[in-house]
Structure formats: C-alpha cells, structure tokens
C-alpha cells in the first residue's frame, strides 16, 4: 500500500520490521522501489534477495528485467535472464514479454536484430516453432544468439533431429557456437553417444570450465544413466554452485544411489559449500524415502525448515515429506502432513493416495480419490494407477477394479489406459485367484506387458499350483523381453518347477538361474546400512549376522542367508532392542523363500518386520502372517 502511494521509506520501515522475510515480502518491497523510480535500489534489492536464498518467481523476475529496461542496462538484464534460465522460468510468458521489452528499449546498431531474436525465443518457448523459423528466415543477418535461439526452440519442442541439423548448418555457414549454443545442444541430446559427442565439441571449443555447461552435462549424463561420466564432469567443476550440487544429487537419486546422495549432502553441510535450497531438500527427502531412512530424513527436514521459511512452507517439500512417511510405513503421519498442505496440487493428492494404496488401505485411498475430484483437482494417469493399485493391494474383488477402470474411462473421455493400468487389472485378477481371466488379459493387452506383470501372474500361479499356466506366461515374457532382464521371472519359474518336481520348462529352456543382485537397506540410529546379495562377509558384524540368522531359521547351507534383505534383517535383530519393529527396503521383489523365512523370524523373535520391495509393503506380524496374504 505504501509503495503504491509513493511512500517508499514507510514501505521500507514496514519491511525492516518483518521478523522473517519470505518471497512475498521481498517482492512487495522490490515492487515499491521499482514503481517509484528507485531503479538502482530495486536492482540491488533483487541481487540481495538472491544472496539470501529467496526463491524468485516469474513476477519478481519481470520486475527486475523491467528495472534493467528502464535503466537501459542490457548487461544487468542479461544477468537477470541467466537467473531466469537457472530457475526454469525463462519460458514464462510474463518473463519473456519483459525480455522482449528490454531488448527493444536497449540502444545500439543491432537493436532490431535483438528484438527479432527475442521474438524468435518467445515463439520457441511457447511451442510456435513454425513462426520462430519464419522470424529466423527473415533476419537480414544472423548472429550466434539467433542461431542458438532457433536450436533451443527445436530442442524445447521435441525436434531434436532438427536441432542437430541446424547446428551443423550453423557451422557450415562459418558461425562459431558459443556456450549458450552448447547448452541448447545438450538439451537436444537423447542418448549417451550424443552427449559424449557434444561434450567433446564443448571441450574443443574451450568452454568446459563454464559452470552452466558443466551443470547441464552432469544432469544429462545422469539422465543417460552414466554416473561415472557425471561424476567426472562434477569433479572438474571448480566453482560449483547449488545447481551443480543439485544436478549431481539428482543423478545419484535417479540411479537409486541413496547412500551417495546422503554423502554429498553431508559434504555440503560440513564444508558449508553452498546453501541448500528447496530442490536440494526435496532430492534428499526422496532419497531417504527410497531407503526408508525415516529418522535421517525427518532430521534433515526439521533442520532446513527451521532455517528457511521458504523451505518450511513449500508444497513440493511437504509432498516429499508425505512420500517419506508413506514409504516408511507411517501412514498416519503422512496424512497429518497432507492435511496441513494449503492449495494441494494433483501430485500431493497422488502421493497420499499412493501411500494408502501401498499399505493396502483401500477404503481410505478410494475416499481420498473422491475428495480429490470434489475439490476440483483433475486426476491424471498416476491418480488412476494409485486407485487401481489400492483395489488390488486391499484385497477387493477383481470386478471392483474392472468397474473402477470403466468408471474412469466414462468420466474422463481423453483417458487412454496404459500398461500400468492394465498391469493393475492383471494383478488384481491374479490375487483374486481368477487366473484364467488374468492370463487372457495378459495375452490381450494392447501394450507390451512388463516383467513386473509377468512376475505377479507367475507368483499367483505358484500360490494356486497352476504350473502349466505358469509355463505359458513365462514363455510369453521371455519372447517379449528375452532372458536378459527377466532374472526375477527366471528365479520364480525355477521355484515353481522345483515345487512341482520338474527341472525345466522345456528341454533346455531354462538353464542356470541367475543369482540375486538387488540391494537392501535398513536404518539404525540414523545410519543407513546397505547390503547386496552375498556380501555378508564384508560387513563388520558379518559373523554375528550369520549366527543370528542361523539361530532364527536358517542353517549353514541355506542360500537365503546370503540374500540382501535377510542380511539387513539380521543386522536389525542384533542392533536394536528386543521387540522393536524393523523396517527394510529391497529394490527388487522379495523371493518366495525369503518371504517364508521372514514370517518365521517375525514369529520367533516376536517382532513386527516391515519389508518394502519393488511390488508392495509386506507387514509381517508376530503371528507369522504377512499382510500380502502370500501373493505379491
């Protein structure tokens, strides 16, 4: 109010009296200065805002760009634009319009060209690729900025081949690419081979030391699954910023390397290298959720929420906290956090519905799904997967899942069922013992069934002793996916035919069964312990773990004691007070034999054991029963 009335000093006094500044208060004082012509002071406030770690939005950026425009300061305007790029807001219409205005007001012989380039950029960001190309073709002279803008437009709109073609044409015309060009080219890369090719060009051009390019390379290598290449680039960046660290953390998180994620976080905190932001905290919480590191994740959230109002109030952070509690078996705590989220988006709703579904709380999941619709939030594919999974894991009748899918298709005419939705139906039918219908749907699916679907159906075949059907399902899966990548199905198939007293599916069809390679995790006193199959001897307490497992259920020759989840449970048994619940995470599905062993261990040790595998949560009660009813 003071700012709009021209009372800047009074507005500043109110601002200084605020105990905890947030994004809104900073933007208001910035607007007050800009509105009243205090352009230099406004720009100074903007840079101070960034130094304080306050996240900027499109409105804040547009004010800063407009200030630069009023000052005729193109250099500062370009710096603000770089902030917009780093924040992912450069494609926002308000920001793009402010940039066009900035370039148009900037003086210089090439101001017309600058405006044309700005318009080209804006067309590209809003998906108008044809118009962007028309602007480019009409340019009397094309600078490296114009070429880079057209390449970026192609990359942003899924025309990666065109981006590479234009890049080659640019070089043929004698135009040397700059660091911005290479950022756009990295965005166009869709494979590791392409990433390495552009990386080589970056090094040859002398741009490898540019932090923005280094950040893009780390992120790209991470998306391509090459942790080694990402780490190599990361280590060579000397002036790392928070984007650099977040890119490396995301790379580890994408590959399920939670331990390395926490190690990087500890380096940031111990060495006070950069100030973690919302993206950092979200990545850490998600990594903790994947490892069921509830204590460590809760501690990290509490630490940063107390230091930053932005982090404490951010909806994405709160949603990640819901995810953490849900994946650690604390559904009531997840719901408590969810209920406190203001203006929940569809991701928050999906996360809470998924938490209910994972634990078999089908009634609560369905009720929440209807609440979502009543509050005017449009569900998406993930919403539908979660609600179908809740029906499957909750043990409802198979026709309930079919009815639900039909209802979704009627209510949302643009919805087309995908492999995840059909997989839920197959899983529900299999759990209900409707093996004939499950097999028919498995073979009739209009999309390629995944190995997980095959495993679920094979497991149901074992439960019901239907070995011939198991053979047909396995053959189909191997035809689609090959033997490589079907290790879990091979293990299950071997177990099925061993139970039936048969050695092979067909003569020579199944030879050696692959050994388990999946990792498992257990958190003890805020420390996450990771086990791989067969590495029990490498743990400092390996001998104690071996003796405890042998005492509980497994003899010396039992191969199950080498499985990663058994080693994690063994450590939990010898490291925690008697009767305390154990939480273990396994990256792949639990094998049949280990599942049976855990039921015995839970009963004999009088402990509840919660195992989260690739499929679902298994709650082993002290009675020796599992919540999955031996079908997962």
UniProtKB/TrEMBL annotation:
The keyword Repeat applies. It holds the Pfam family DYW_deaminase. GO terms for molecular function: RNA binding; zinc ion binding. Keywords: Repeat. One of its GO terms (biological process) is system development. Residues 561-632 form the DYW domain. PPR repeats lie at residues 22-56, 143-177, 241-276, 345-379. InterPro entries: DYW_dom (IPR032867), PPR_At4g14850-like_plant (IPR046960), PPR_rpt (IPR002885), TPR-like_helical_dom_sf (IPR011990). This is DYW domain-containing protein.
């Amino acid at each position: 109010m003071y700012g709009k009335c021209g009372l800047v000093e009074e507005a500043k006094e109110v601002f200084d009296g605020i105990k905890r500044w947030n994004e809104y208060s900073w933007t208001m004082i910035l607007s007050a200065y800009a509105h009243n012509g205090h352009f230099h002071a406004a720009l100074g406030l903007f840079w101070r805002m960034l130094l304080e770690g306050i996240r900027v939005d499109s409105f804040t950026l547009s004010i800063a760009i407009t200030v630069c425009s009023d000052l005729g300061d193109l250099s500062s305007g370009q710096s603000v634009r770089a902030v917009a790029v780093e924040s992912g807001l450069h494609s926002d219409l308000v920001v793009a319009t402010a940039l066009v205005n900035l370039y148009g007001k900037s003086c210089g012989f090439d101001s017309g060209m600058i405006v044309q380039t700005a318009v080209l950029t804006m067309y590209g960001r809003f998906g108008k690729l044809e118009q962007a190309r028309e602007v480019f073709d009409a340019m009397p002279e094309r600078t490296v900025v114009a070429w880079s803008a057209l390449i970026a437009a192609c990359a942003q709109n899924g025309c990666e081949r065109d981006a590479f073609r234009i890049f080659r044409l640019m070089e043929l015309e004698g135009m040397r690419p700059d660091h911005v060009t290479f950022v756009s080219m990295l965005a166009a890369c869709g494979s590791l081979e392409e990433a390495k090719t552009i990386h080589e060009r970056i090094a040859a051009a002398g741009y490898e030391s540019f932090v923005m390019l280094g950040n893009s390379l780390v992120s790209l290598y991470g998306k391509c699954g090459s942790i080694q290449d990402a780490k190599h680039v990361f280590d060579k960046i000397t002036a790392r910023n928070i984007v650099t660290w977040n890119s490396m953390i995301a790379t580890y998180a994408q590959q399920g390397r939670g331990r390395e994620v926490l190690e990087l976080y500890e380096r940031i905190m111990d060495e006070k290298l950069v100030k973690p932001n919302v993206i950092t905290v979200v990545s850490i919480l998600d990594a903790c959720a994947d490892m069921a590191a509830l204590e460590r994740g809760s501690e990290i959230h509490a630490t940063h929420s107390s230091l930053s109002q932005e982090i404490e109030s951010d909806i994405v952070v709160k949603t990640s906290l819901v995810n953490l509690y849900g994946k650690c078996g604390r559904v009531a705590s997840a719901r408590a956090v969810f209920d406190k989220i203001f203006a929940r988006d569809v991701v928050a709703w999906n996360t809470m519905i998924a938490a209910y579904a994972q634990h078999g709380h089908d009634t609560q999941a369905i009720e929440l799904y209807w609440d979502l619709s009543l509050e005017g939030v449009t569900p998406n594919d993930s919403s539908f997967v979660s609600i179908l999974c809740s029906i499957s894991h909750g043990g409802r009748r198979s026709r309930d899942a079919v009815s639900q899918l039909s209802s979704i298709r009627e209510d949302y005419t643009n919805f087309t069922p995908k492999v995840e939705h059909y997989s839920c139906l197959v899983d529900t039918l299999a759990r209900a013992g409707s093996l004939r219908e499950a097999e028919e749907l498995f073979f009739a699916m209009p999309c390629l069934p995944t190995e997980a679907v095959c495993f679920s159906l094979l497991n149901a075949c074992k439960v019901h002793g239907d070995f011939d059907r198991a053979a047909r399902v396995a053959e189909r899966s191997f035809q689609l996916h090959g033997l490589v990548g079907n290790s879990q199905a091979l293990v299950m198939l071997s177990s099925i035919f061993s139970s039936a007293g048969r050695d092979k599916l067909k003569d020579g069809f199944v030879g050696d069964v692959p050994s388990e390679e999946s990792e498992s995790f257990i958190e003890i006193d805020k420390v996450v312990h990771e086990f791989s199959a067969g590495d029990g001897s490498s743990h400092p307490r390996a001998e104690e773990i071996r003796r405890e497992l042998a005492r509980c259920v497994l003899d010396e020759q039992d191969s199950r004691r080498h499985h990663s989840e058994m080693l994690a449970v063994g450590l939990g048994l010898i490291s925690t007070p008697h009767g305390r619940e154990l939480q273990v995470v396994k990256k792949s599905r639990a094998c049949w034999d280990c599942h049976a062993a855990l039921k015995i261990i839970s009963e004999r040790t009088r402990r509840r054991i919660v195992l989260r595998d690739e499929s679902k949560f298994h709650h082993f009660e002290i009675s020796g029963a599992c919540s999955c009813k031996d079908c997962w």
